[in-house]
Design brief:
Flavocytochrome B2, Chain A, domain 1, heme, globular, Rossmann fold, binds protoporphyrin IX containing FE, metal-binding, 25 strands, five-stranded mixed beta sheet, 4 domains, acyl-CoA dehydrogenase activity, alpha+beta, 34 helices
């Protein structure tokens, strides 16, 4: 079926019907991209990255069939932009040319009809096939490019992506601006030959100016094409490369003097050594080139990179793509969209693994359903060939409906024709086998190829592997008469594994604290976590980008943001979902520690001082927009100089001469969410002692990412305040009374951390129980060994006692005022937090022992355990280090010791 659909008939829709990306530049824009080769999708990607969609969706429609064409007309009539990547005439022949939409009685006069062809639309090559290299050739630009004997193409970057895709996207943006003024759409015409010439304007114009570097010399002998020795790439001692680009005499001087110093003193080219003032003496260039070529070979690349780092010598290492990805703040292998637009820093959606594999027709059902096309109509259209949709599990077209016997499967046991059965499902891995991350040989093993490989599979993969779309579609049917028995995560449901849920959620147990309402509430939050939060958390923890605005908006709509601050006046008038403990514990289940903190934990600890100690005017301005997820806040207390020791802080705030503003100077470190915060609740040293002030991002406030052991998704920042200003009205609490502001905050912060820690210990218990049951060692399941069971006993006891103590303290909190809590519970909470985090570390260590090598591997079976173990120390430090808290607890107790007590 797939093959019947030629490229010209497939449609990619980069647009979503119900999106609400208010903060992104192209929010709500619906783009229809007819599937083509690289440049069209790139133009679509640029639009999608800026808000036109959450990633692309694919619908497969055949426009040559009656119903298909009608559908297309409808879709395009509702679109803002259409991207046509076909040769001239194709769209017209399909009856979908620009006139149909933009003409006199056109169907969509606001449509921006972007067309992209290789050769100029009117020229002599217009009907010919071609590729990047041909467009480059015809543009004249290829003749300028370096390469021995003949020019070499610089992959397909210039014509396809710069001259084609990028130009096309720019044309669309220009047309959108124009539409904003006139209300009318128009045709945007891009061809890659002219586009290439345009992006090459400067070199091409340079050729016309006799004195320019482009006009001097032949290809390969010019300033920027490898001719100049000081603008070149050299191979270093370790075989890696370094780039040199010091064109300006001042930069060259810096470079050459340092270089000559770095090579052995007796090194020369037959007695010749370069000098700083002979840079442009072309007669010396061959000698200079040889000098640099041999000179760079004395040392490895990174030696040179370090030597010139931070200087103006313009010498930088040629990084591999992997190294370059690491340098990116997000350390993402997927390039982050560019340019960044300050209105929404980092608020784009980086495609996850799923959207890297877009299959024609993957979203046909979703998109047509959005148009109101019913199942019966879709079925009919599929029958006539007007549409193609990918099978869905529960549709009659699902592979579930195709049945095979194990004997039939066994016939497909060779390279190129390889099937296997896993958990009563049949997979055709013929095409996948060469890409299998575990290698080809394991799949060709006689015990596996054509066989029921369930046991082999589950001892090496997490069940969720088969749920990823790119693997799910390998399934071609089921084994007749057999039923799947393996359950991985059942979205929204409680786990059946013992101790995987707190007792109040387990059937047959009772609780003095929780009611049916709480259970209902838990169910609602779990659904949100499993369906929306978990998938995004897994992607973003890896790619390091922050929580999406879509999730923030959803949490705002559910009033989750407001609820996370616990009971109080701020909840008045909001649609309430009860139970902060429940909420916090469920959110922890997103299973991604950095992302979890990125999920506005800055608000959880940074906003209460505003709520409880801010002026009415300040609260009215700040609180609603933070709850609505429009602005972000963080708590900025700790410094490189002082962490748990609040009185040792060095950031100062002094009043301006007119007494109206605070002027703040100093630095803050490890500020969760700081990198994307608009507000900072800052602890400052003032004349009267310690004062907390709300500072808004503005002049004098800079934030930098700190690379910690968890994901940059948390936005952990180093903040500098250089004469930053805040109105005196932004003071939280009394001047000099900061310690009281913080004390009431500490209880809340620590208690929240206990909720998270107790819940994640439980998740580790679940992982270990499952793994020790399915993993065989020495011929028996791991859990048949007493040492393993003993470790499990410790883990379970710790998780249960943390939860029980937490529930008891929470009950006390519910029945005490903040003031009473400060007196009676600060010590209890401090002890609990220290207990939670120390037991968490013990549990993490034991879990790694149980998982073995997998427990230190970031992908595969042990990935949660690896993640947990790597990030568990955060809790033990944030909100007060363990020893400090324990001591605080004892000191609090000593304070209330009866003076007259004797043994
Ligand atoms: C539809 C079938 C299969 C799919 C989609 C699949 C997919 C994968 C993936 C994604 C990985 C990377 C590890 C991870 O991230 O979890 C992997 C690893 C591996 N696979 Fe498969 N696999 C399949 C079948 C099998 C079978 C039947 C075997 C039989 C022995 C096998 C043996 C392995 C091995 C040995 C590894 C390396 C495990 C490690 O590094 O610990 N795979 N596979």
């Amino acid at each position: 079926m797939v093959q019947e659909y030629g490229a010209a008939n497939r449609i990619i829709i980069a647009g979503h019907f119900n999106l609400n990306f208010l903060l992104m530049a192209l929010a709500g824009l619906k783009v229809i991209e007819f599937a083509g080769l690289a440049p069209g999708p790139f133009a679509g990607l640029i639009l999608a990255d800026n808000g036109a969609s959450v990633g692309k969706k694919s619908v497969a429609i055949n426009p040559k069939i009656e119903g298909g064409k009608a559908l297309l007309l409808r879709l395009i009539s509702e679109a803002d932009v259409l991207i046509d990547p076909y040769r001239p005439g194709v769209m017209e022949r399909l009856g979908l040319g620009p006139d149909v939409f933009l003409g006199k009685s056109g169907l969509n006069k606001r449509l921006i009809y972007a067309r992209m062809v290789g050769f100029p639309r009117e020229g002599p090559h217009k009907d010919m096939a071609g590729h990047d290299i041909n467009y480059l050739a015809l543009s004249g630009v290829l003749s300028l490019l370096p390469g021995q004997d003949k020019p070499q193409p610089p992959i397909n970057i210039v014509a396809d992506f710069a001259g084609g895709g990028l130009s096309c996207a720019m044309g669309i943006l220009l047309a959108l601006i124009d539409r904003g003024k006139t209300g009318r759409g128009q045709v945007v015409d891009t061809n890659m030959v002219s586009g290439t010439r345009y992006v090459s304007s400067f070199p091409l114009l340079g050729l016309l100016v006799p004195s320019s570097s482009m006009a001097m010399g032949e290809r390969g002998s010019r300033l920027l094409d490898g001719g100049a020795p000081f603008y070149n790439v050299y191979t270093c001692g370790d075989g890696r490369w370094i780039s040199v680009g010091c064109i300006e005499p001042a930069f060259y001087k810096l470079f050459i003097e340092q270089f000559v110093n770095a090579v052995p003193t007796d090194f020369s080219i037959s007695g010749w050594r370069p000098t700083a003032d002979e840079q442009y003496n072309q007669d010396d260039w061959p000698k200079l080139k040889e000098y640099l070529t041999r000179g760079f070979a004395f040392q490895p690349r990174d030696y040179w990179a370090k030597l010139f780092h931070g200087t103006d010598a313009c010498v930088l290492p040629v990084l591999s793509t992997e190294e370059a990805a690491q340098l990116d703040a997000s350390a993402s292998s997927f390039p982050v969209p560019h340019p960044r637009i300050s209105a929404g820093p980092g608020r784009w959606v980086v495609p996850g693994e799923d959207s890297l594999y877009l299959e024609a027709g993957q979203h046909t059902v979703e998109i047509l359903a959005g148009l109101g096309v019913g199942e019966a109509q879709m079925e009919e259209m599929e029958r006539t060939g007007a549409i193609r949709r990918l099978p869905l599990d529960d549709s009659p077209f699902s592979p579930m409906s195709k049945q095979f016997t194990l004997e039939e499967v066994a016939k497909h046991n060779k390279p190129g024709d390889l099937w296997l059965a896993i958990d009563a499902k049949v997979y055709d891995v013929s095409k996948f086998m060469n890409m299998h991350p575990g290698g080809l040989s394991v799949l060709l093993d006689p015990e596996v190829s054509g066989q029921d490989a369930t046991e082999a599979f589950f001892s090496l993969h997490r069940a969720e592997v088969l749920e990823r779309p790119q693997y799910k579609r390998l399934q071609i049917g089921v084994i007749a008469g057999e039923e799947s028995t393996i359950v991985s995560r059942v979205t929204g449901e409680l786990s059946k594994v013992p101790y995987a849920e707190p007792t109040w959620l387990v059937e047959g147990y009772h609780s003095p604290y929780f009611t049916e309402n709480h259970r209902q509430f838990q169910k609602a939050v779990r659904k949100f976590v499993d369906e929306d939060l978990y998938p995004e958390a897994q992607i973003k923890e890896e790619d390091g980008t922050r929580v999406s605005q879509e999730i923030v908006d959803k949490m705002a709509a559910l009033n989750i943001n407001a609820m996370r601050l616990g009971p109080g006046k701020h909840l008045h008038g909001l649609t309430l979902m009860n139970g902060l403990l429940v909420l916090t514990q469920e959110l922890t289940r997103c299973g991604a520690r950095g992302y979890g903190d990125g999920l506005l934990s800055g608000m959880v600890i940074g906003l209460p001082p505003v709520l409880n100690f801010g002026s009415e005017e300040l609260k009215a301005r700040v609180v609603p927009e933070v709850f609505q997820g429009k602005k972000f806040i963080s708590l900025a207390i700790s410094e490189a100089h002082a962490g748990s020791d609040v009185m040792g802080l060095q950031t100062t705030a002094v009043k301006s001469e007119d007494g109206k503003e605070w002027i703040i100077n100093g630095t803050k470190k490890w500020i969760t969410n700081g990198h994307f915060s608009d507000y900072f609740t800052v602890g400052c040293k003032t004349e009267d002692g310690f004062t907390v002030i709300l500072v808004e991002r503005g002049p004098g406030v800079e934030t930098k990412h700190i690379k910690t052991s968890y994901s940059p998704s948390a936005g952990t920042a180093y903040i500098t305040f250089d004469n930053a200003r805040a109105p005196v009205g932004n003071t939280l609490g009394e001047e000099g009374g900061g310690i009281f502001v913080m004390l009431s905050n500490f209880n809340h912060e620590r208690w929240v951390m206990c909720c998270g820690s107790a819940r994640s210990q439980r998740s580790v218990v679940e992982e270990c129980l499952k793994w020790s049951a399915q993993r065989k060692a020495f011929g028996k399941p791991l859990n048949s060994m007493a040492v393993i069971r003993s470790k499990m006993a410790g883990m379970i006891s710790r998780a249960e006692s943390a939860q029980a103590w937490l529930e008891s303290i929470t009950y006390q909190m519910c029945n005490m005022s903040y003031k009473q809590q400060a007196g009676k519970l600060a010590g209890q909470i401090a002890f609990l937090k220290a207990y939670c985090t120390s037991s968490a570390q013990e549990t993490a260590r034991d879990a790694v022992q149980i998982f073995g090598g997998r427990g230190i591997t970031r992908t595969g079976m042990g990935r949660y355990i690896e993640h947990y173990h790597r990030t568990v120390a955060f809790d033990a430090l944030l909100g007060g280090a363990e020893d400090v808290l324990r001591d605080l607890g004892v000191r609090q107790a000593l304070r209330v010791m009866p003076k007259d007590s004797r043994l």
